[in-house]
Amino acid sequence: MKILVLNGSPKKKSDTFRMTEAFLKGLNKDNEHEVNVINVIDKDIAPCRGCFGCWKQGDGHCIFNDDQNGILDLYRTADLIIWSFPLYCYSMPSHLKAVLDRTIPLLKMDMVQQPDGTVRHIPLVDFSRIHTLVICGCGFPDWDGNFDSLRLMCKTCFRDPDMVCVPEAPLMNVPKAAIVADPLLERFEKAGEEYALSLTLSAETVRELETPMIPKEEYIRNVNGY
Ligand SMILES: Cc1cc2nc3c(=O)[nH]c(=O)nc-3n(C[C@H](O)[C@H](O)[C@H](O)COP(=O)(O)O)c2cc1C
Asked: Is 184 left (phi over 0), alpha (psi -120 to 50) or beta?
């Protein structure tokens, strides 16, 4: 399987990427997959100019030749794309959003109505064969309200991807919190193994991964005492 990992954390020591790494360890236990990790922050990817030059050109590339065209080549040939990023203002970080916006060269201008009545552009590539997994860490202790807009955006853009939204993610890089972070990393590794077998995650596994590591009140007390 060709796996493309889009790491959207701008930090060298990403809380979210620790979980993604553990997941990849389980997923690629037997070293049989080709894993390509792109640290998006290190790439030269400008925001979309909205010129639709890509649609006029029609070859699946952007007319502006920065690093996005290389990502598009990996994107269209991947079997699994993992979007790994921190929650920023209830959404994804802007440098990663630029990558998402600039996947429109993989679509045509022509529109088609779906069986449910919604309208989409006709894709240039067969997206139905590409699996998508979103791993997002956030700083608040809740999912409620916090991840809602991101979930809706990902559901629409990636057509019901597997999603793991992890609250209290900064605990991943607090040495004193290893007692709760390490067991979660082990669960991520197990989840990777599960994903390798079934190419999806059970609701039970997602629930285990998303459960806050420590009670909300304790987390808030610790943050406020920092
Ligand atoms: C600009 C910015 C916006 C953020 N917005 C949110 C947010 O909307 N909700 C939340 O729970 N945490 C928010 N956070 C906290 C990060 O999601 C959190 O620190 C996360 O663990 C960082 O992950 P990383 O180390 O993988 O980059 C924000 C952080 C930054 C810097």
From this structure: alpha
pLDDT digits (tens, 9 = 90+) for 208-222: 999 999 999 999 999
C-beta neighbour count of 183 within 10 angstroms: 11
For the CA of 85, the closest atom of ligand 1 is: 26
Ligand 1 atom 30: residue of nearest CA: 88
For residue 37, what is the enclosing H or E element? strand 34-39
Of residues 58, 47, 49, the one with CA closest to residue 121 = 58
Report the separation in Å between the CA atom of 200 and the middle of ligand 1, taken as the mean of its atom positions. Answer: 26
- Residue with CA at minimum distance from ligand 1 atom 27: 9
For domain 2-224, the question of CATH label 3.40.50.360 is answered with: yes
pLDDT tens string 174-220: 999 999 999 999 999 999 999 999 999 999 999 999 999 999 999 99
